[in-house]
Structure to design on (94 residues):
C-alpha cells in the first residue's frame, strides 16, 4: 500500500491513529509521517508552545492549562500529575 493511500484511508476511517495502526499493522510513527506528508494534518509528535508566565492573582490557585483545541483545564495546588496526564490525553482525542 502506498503512503498517500494509507494517509487517505486513515482520514476516511474514523478511527484513532492507534486503532488504525493496530488494524492495518502500521507503525504509529510511520502513519504520522504519512499524514504529515500527504494530508497536511499535524502529527501526534511533541509540539512547542509559547507560554507567558504572569504573577498569579491568587496565591492559593494552582495552574491553568489551555489546550490547542481551546479547552481549559484548571488545577488546584497539590493536583495529581498522573490524573492530569490522563485527562489531557482524553481531551486531546476529542
Amino acid at each position: 500500500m502506498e503512503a498517500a493511500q494509507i494517509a487517505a484511508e486513515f482520514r476516511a476511517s474514523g478511527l484513532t491513529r492507534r486503532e488504525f495502526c493496530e488494524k492495518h499493522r502500521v507503525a504509529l510513527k510511520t502513519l504520522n509521517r504519512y499524514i504529515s506528508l500527504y494530508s497536511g494534518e499535524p502529527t501526534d509528535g511533541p509540539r512547542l508552545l509559547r507560554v507567558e508566565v504572569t504573577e498569579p492573582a491568587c496565591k492559593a490557585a494552582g495552574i491553568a492549562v489551555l489546550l490547542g483545541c481551546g479547552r481549559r483545564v484548571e488545577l488546584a495546588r497539590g493536583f495529581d500529575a498522573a490524573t492530569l496526564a490522563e485527562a489531557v490525553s482524553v481531551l486531546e482525542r476529542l
The mean pLDDT is 77. The chain has four helices and two strands. The chain has two domains: 3-38, 48-94. Residues 48-94 form one domain.
